[in-house]
Design a protein that fits this description.
Helices cover 82% and strands 0% of the residues. It is mainly α. Among the domains are: 3-84, no CATH class; 216-287, Helix Hairpins (Orthogonal Bundle). The chain is rod-shaped. The longest helix is centred in the first third of the chain and has 73 residues, at 53-125.
Protein backbone atom coordinates (compact mmCIF):
# COMPACT_ATOMS: atom_id res chain seq x y z
CA UNK A 1 0.00 0.00 0.00
CA UNK A 2 1.38 3.35 -0.95
CA UNK A 3 1.83 6.14 1.54
CA UNK A 4 -1.08 7.99 -0.03
CA UNK A 5 -3.35 5.00 0.18
CA UNK A 6 -2.33 4.39 3.79
CA UNK A 7 -2.88 8.04 4.66
CA UNK A 8 -6.30 8.04 2.98
CA UNK A 9 -7.26 4.86 4.85
CA UNK A 10 -6.23 6.35 8.19
CA UNK A 11 -8.14 9.56 7.39
CA UNK A 12 -11.30 7.67 6.45
CA UNK A 13 -11.04 5.59 9.62
CA UNK A 14 -10.58 8.71 11.72
CA UNK A 15 -13.57 10.41 10.06
CA UNK A 16 -15.68 7.31 10.67
CA UNK A 17 -14.68 7.22 14.33
CA UNK A 18 -15.50 10.91 14.70
CA UNK A 19 -18.97 10.38 13.15
CA UNK A 20 -19.53 7.40 15.43
CA UNK A 21 -18.56 9.47 18.47
CA UNK A 22 -20.95 12.23 17.36
CA UNK A 23 -23.81 9.72 17.10
CA UNK A 24 -22.90 8.35 20.54
CA UNK A 25 -22.90 11.90 21.92
CA UNK A 26 -26.31 12.57 20.35
CA UNK A 27 -27.71 9.36 21.87
CA UNK A 28 -26.17 10.29 25.21
CA UNK A 29 -27.84 13.72 25.15
CA UNK A 30 -31.19 12.11 24.36
CA UNK A 31 -30.88 9.66 27.25
CA UNK A 32 -32.02 10.51 30.79
CA UNK A 33 -28.87 9.80 32.75
CA UNK A 34 -29.81 11.66 35.94
CA UNK A 35 -29.76 8.42 37.91
CA UNK A 36 -26.27 7.52 36.62
CA UNK A 37 -24.15 10.71 36.60
CA UNK A 38 -20.83 8.89 37.00
CA UNK A 39 -21.46 6.57 34.06
CA UNK A 40 -22.48 9.52 31.89
CA UNK A 41 -19.34 11.42 32.92
CA UNK A 42 -17.11 8.44 32.03
CA UNK A 43 -18.69 8.24 28.60
CA UNK A 44 -18.37 11.95 27.93
CA UNK A 45 -14.69 11.75 28.86
CA UNK A 46 -13.92 9.53 25.86
CA UNK A 47 -16.15 11.22 23.29
CA UNK A 48 -13.26 13.45 22.18
CA UNK A 49 -10.85 10.55 21.67
CA UNK A 50 -11.38 8.96 18.23
CA UNK A 51 -9.11 6.08 19.17
CA UNK A 52 -11.50 5.17 22.01
CA UNK A 53 -14.60 4.80 19.87
CA UNK A 54 -14.99 1.11 20.79
CA UNK A 55 -14.76 1.96 24.48
CA UNK A 56 -17.33 4.74 24.00
CA UNK A 57 -19.71 2.38 22.20
CA UNK A 58 -19.36 -0.21 24.97
CA UNK A 59 -19.95 2.43 27.66
CA UNK A 60 -23.07 3.64 25.81
CA UNK A 61 -24.50 0.12 25.58
CA UNK A 62 -23.81 -0.41 29.29
CA UNK A 63 -25.36 2.95 30.22
CA UNK A 64 -28.48 2.37 28.10
CA UNK A 65 -28.96 -1.01 29.75
CA UNK A 66 -28.82 0.58 33.18
CA UNK A 67 -31.24 3.30 32.12
CA UNK A 68 -33.74 0.75 30.74
CA UNK A 69 -33.50 -1.31 33.92
CA UNK A 70 -33.97 1.83 36.01
CA UNK A 71 -36.97 2.96 33.96
CA UNK A 72 -38.51 -0.50 34.23
CA UNK A 73 -38.05 -0.48 38.00
CA UNK A 74 -39.56 3.03 38.16
CA UNK A 75 -42.59 1.90 36.16
CA UNK A 76 -43.02 -1.11 38.41
CA UNK A 77 -42.75 1.09 41.50
CA UNK A 78 -45.24 3.56 40.06
CA UNK A 79 -47.64 0.73 39.27
CA UNK A 80 -47.19 -0.63 42.76
CA UNK A 81 -47.81 2.82 44.26
CA UNK A 82 -50.87 3.17 42.06
CA UNK A 83 -52.16 -0.19 43.23
CA UNK A 84 -51.45 0.75 46.85
CA UNK A 85 -53.33 4.01 46.39
CA UNK A 86 -56.27 2.14 44.87
CA UNK A 87 -56.26 -0.36 47.74
CA UNK A 88 -56.18 2.51 50.24
CA UNK A 89 -59.02 4.24 48.38
CA UNK A 90 -61.11 1.07 48.42
CA UNK A 91 -60.31 0.48 52.09
CA UNK A 92 -61.23 4.07 52.88
CA UNK A 93 -64.49 3.68 50.98
CA UNK A 94 -65.27 0.48 52.89
CA UNK A 95 -64.59 2.26 56.17
CA UNK A 96 -66.74 5.22 55.16
CA UNK A 97 -69.53 2.89 54.08
CA UNK A 98 -69.25 0.99 57.35
CA UNK A 99 -69.35 4.29 59.27
CA UNK A 100 -72.39 5.44 57.28
CA UNK A 101 -74.09 2.15 58.13
CA UNK A 102 -73.11 2.54 61.77
CA UNK A 103 -74.43 6.10 61.93
CA UNK A 104 -77.66 5.03 60.23
CA UNK A 105 -78.10 2.28 62.79
CA UNK A 106 -77.32 4.72 65.61
CA UNK A 107 -80.04 7.06 64.30
CA UNK A 108 -82.57 4.22 64.22
CA UNK A 109 -81.63 3.06 67.71
CA UNK A 110 -81.78 6.61 69.07
CA UNK A 111 -85.23 7.08 67.52
CA UNK A 112 -86.40 3.83 69.12
CA UNK A 113 -85.01 4.86 72.50
CA UNK A 114 -86.48 8.37 72.23
CA UNK A 115 -89.88 6.90 71.39
CA UNK A 116 -89.64 4.61 74.41
CA UNK A 117 -88.54 7.58 76.53
CA UNK A 118 -91.60 9.56 75.42
CA UNK A 119 -93.97 6.75 76.35
CA UNK A 120 -92.28 6.13 79.70
CA UNK A 121 -92.39 9.82 80.63
CA UNK A 122 -96.08 9.84 79.78
CA UNK A 123 -96.62 6.97 82.19
CA UNK A 124 -94.51 8.63 84.89
CA UNK A 125 -96.19 12.02 84.53
CA UNK A 126 -99.68 10.51 84.72
CA UNK A 127 -99.32 7.86 87.43
CA UNK A 128 -102.44 5.90 88.33
CA UNK A 129 -100.51 2.99 89.75
CA UNK A 130 -97.39 3.23 91.94
CA UNK A 131 -95.94 -0.05 90.68
CA UNK A 132 -96.47 0.97 87.06
CA UNK A 133 -94.77 4.31 87.67
CA UNK A 134 -91.80 2.61 89.36
CA UNK A 135 -91.47 0.15 86.47
CA UNK A 136 -91.54 3.07 84.01
CA UNK A 137 -88.83 4.89 86.01
CA UNK A 138 -86.57 1.84 86.00
CA UNK A 139 -87.07 1.37 82.25
CA UNK A 140 -86.45 5.10 81.69
CA UNK A 141 -83.19 4.90 83.63
CA UNK A 142 -82.05 2.06 81.34
CA UNK A 143 -83.11 4.03 78.24
CA UNK A 144 -81.12 7.07 79.34
CA UNK A 145 -78.05 4.96 80.08
CA UNK A 146 -78.25 3.32 76.63
CA UNK A 147 -78.48 6.74 74.99
CA UNK A 148 -75.42 7.91 76.92
CA UNK A 149 -73.23 5.05 75.60
CA UNK A 150 -74.81 4.74 72.16
CA UNK A 151 -72.09 6.56 70.21
CA UNK A 152 -69.08 5.17 72.06
CA UNK A 153 -66.60 3.64 69.55
CA UNK A 154 -66.79 0.05 70.76
CA UNK A 155 -70.52 -0.15 71.46
CA UNK A 156 -72.10 -3.36 70.14
CA UNK A 157 -74.89 -1.83 68.07
CA UNK A 158 -76.58 -5.15 67.34
CA UNK A 159 -76.92 -5.82 71.07
CA UNK A 160 -77.90 -2.19 71.61
CA UNK A 161 -80.62 -2.44 68.97
CA UNK A 162 -82.03 -5.60 70.56
CA UNK A 163 -82.12 -3.88 73.96
CA UNK A 164 -83.73 -0.77 72.46
CA UNK A 165 -86.46 -2.82 70.78
CA UNK A 166 -87.12 -4.72 74.00
CA UNK A 167 -87.42 -1.47 75.96
CA UNK A 168 -89.67 -0.07 73.25
CA UNK A 169 -92.00 -3.04 73.70
CA UNK A 170 -92.01 -2.55 77.47
CA UNK A 171 -92.74 1.16 77.06
CA UNK A 172 -95.49 0.38 74.56
CA UNK A 173 -97.19 -2.06 76.92
CA UNK A 174 -96.97 0.37 79.84
CA UNK A 175 -98.29 3.23 77.69
CA UNK A 176 -101.18 1.13 76.39
CA UNK A 177 -102.10 0.10 79.92
CA UNK A 178 -101.86 3.74 80.99
CA UNK A 179 -104.18 4.77 78.17
CA UNK A 180 -106.69 2.12 79.18
CA UNK A 181 -106.61 3.39 82.75
CA UNK A 182 -106.87 6.99 81.54
CA UNK A 183 -109.94 6.02 79.51
CA UNK A 184 -111.52 4.42 82.54
CA UNK A 185 -110.64 7.51 84.57
CA UNK A 186 -112.26 9.77 81.96
CA UNK A 187 -115.41 7.69 82.02
CA UNK A 188 -115.44 7.89 85.80
CA UNK A 189 -114.86 11.64 85.58
CA UNK A 190 -117.83 11.92 83.25
CA UNK A 191 -120.01 10.33 85.88
CA UNK A 192 -118.59 12.68 88.48
CA UNK A 193 -119.42 15.67 86.29
CA UNK A 194 -123.00 14.52 86.04
CA UNK A 195 -123.18 14.20 89.79
CA UNK A 196 -121.53 17.62 90.20
CA UNK A 197 -124.05 19.23 87.89
CA UNK A 198 -126.85 17.75 89.92
CA UNK A 199 -125.14 18.94 93.13
CA UNK A 200 -125.08 22.58 91.92
CA UNK A 201 -122.68 25.23 93.34
CA UNK A 202 -121.61 23.02 96.21
CA UNK A 203 -120.30 20.48 93.69
CA UNK A 204 -118.24 23.19 91.97
CA UNK A 205 -116.65 24.14 95.26
CA UNK A 206 -115.76 20.53 95.97
CA UNK A 207 -114.15 20.19 92.53
CA UNK A 208 -112.18 23.39 93.06
CA UNK A 209 -110.84 22.10 96.35
CA UNK A 210 -109.92 18.77 94.74
CA UNK A 211 -108.10 20.54 91.90
CA UNK A 212 -106.22 22.78 94.30
CA UNK A 213 -105.07 19.77 96.30
CA UNK A 214 -103.90 17.93 93.14
CA UNK A 215 -100.18 18.67 92.83
CA UNK A 216 -99.89 17.07 89.40
CA UNK A 217 -101.80 19.02 86.74
CA UNK A 218 -99.77 21.37 84.56
CA UNK A 219 -96.88 21.39 87.02
CA UNK A 220 -96.55 17.60 86.71
CA UNK A 221 -96.63 17.86 82.92
CA UNK A 222 -93.55 20.10 83.07
CA UNK A 223 -91.98 18.04 85.86
CA UNK A 224 -91.77 20.91 88.36
CA UNK A 225 -93.21 21.62 91.79
CA UNK A 226 -96.19 23.97 92.23
CA UNK A 227 -93.96 26.48 94.02
CA UNK A 228 -91.24 26.40 91.31
CA UNK A 229 -89.95 29.83 90.22
CA UNK A 230 -90.81 31.13 86.76
CA UNK A 231 -87.28 30.60 85.42
CA UNK A 232 -87.31 26.94 86.43
CA UNK A 233 -90.66 26.46 84.69
CA UNK A 234 -89.34 28.15 81.56
CA UNK A 235 -86.22 25.96 81.47
CA UNK A 236 -88.24 22.79 82.06
CA UNK A 237 -90.57 23.68 79.19
CA UNK A 238 -87.71 24.41 76.78
CA UNK A 239 -85.93 21.14 77.58
CA UNK A 240 -89.02 18.97 77.29
CA UNK A 241 -90.43 20.62 74.16
CA UNK A 242 -87.13 20.01 72.39
CA UNK A 243 -87.02 16.42 73.61
CA UNK A 244 -90.54 15.49 72.51
CA UNK A 245 -91.05 17.63 69.43
CA UNK A 246 -92.99 15.58 66.82
CA UNK A 247 -90.45 16.40 64.10
CA UNK A 248 -87.97 14.15 65.90
CA UNK A 249 -90.32 11.21 65.36
CA UNK A 250 -91.38 11.92 61.78
CA UNK A 251 -89.58 8.80 60.52
CA UNK A 252 -90.59 6.58 63.43
CA UNK A 253 -92.10 3.26 62.23
CA UNK A 254 -94.55 2.94 65.14
CA UNK A 255 -97.66 5.10 64.79
CA UNK A 256 -98.27 5.09 68.54
CA UNK A 257 -94.86 6.67 69.14
CA UNK A 258 -95.70 9.57 66.83
CA UNK A 259 -99.08 9.94 68.52
CA UNK A 260 -97.49 9.94 71.97
CA UNK A 261 -94.97 12.59 70.89
CA UNK A 262 -97.72 14.80 69.45
CA UNK A 263 -99.90 14.36 72.53
CA UNK A 264 -97.00 15.11 74.89
CA UNK A 265 -96.13 18.23 72.88
CA UNK A 266 -99.75 19.37 73.04
CA UNK A 267 -99.79 18.94 76.83
CA UNK A 268 -96.48 20.76 77.22
CA UNK A 269 -97.70 23.71 75.17
CA UNK A 270 -100.97 23.78 77.07
CA UNK A 271 -99.16 23.73 80.42
CA UNK A 272 -96.73 26.44 79.31
CA UNK A 273 -99.59 28.55 78.01
CA UNK A 274 -101.00 28.64 81.53
CA UNK A 275 -97.89 28.55 83.73
CA UNK A 276 -95.71 30.71 81.50
CA UNK A 277 -97.86 33.79 82.08
CA UNK A 278 -97.85 35.13 85.66
CA UNK A 279 -101.49 36.22 85.50
CA UNK A 280 -102.88 32.95 84.18
CA UNK A 281 -100.65 31.04 86.57
CA UNK A 282 -102.13 32.94 89.55
CA UNK A 283 -105.63 32.20 88.29
CA UNK A 284 -104.70 28.54 87.86
CA UNK A 285 -103.22 28.33 91.35
CA UNK A 286 -106.34 29.90 92.87
CA UNK A 287 -108.72 27.59 91.02
Amino acid sequence: MTDYARLKHDFDELAGNIDTLKRIGTQLDATDTAAFPEDAASLRAVLHSPDKVDQAAALLIQLEGKVRAHDRAEREQQEERKQDAERQRQEGERKREAERGRQSKIIRIRATLTGAETSLNHVINSPRDVDMAEAAKEALHTVQWLKSVLEMPYTDLDSMQANAEQLSQVASMLAQEQRRRDDRGHRSAGGSNERRDSAGPSGDREEGRAKSSDSRGYYAVLGVKPDAPAEEIRKAYRVMIQQYHPDLFAHEDHEWVRQEAAETTRKLNEAWGVLGDPATRRDYDRS
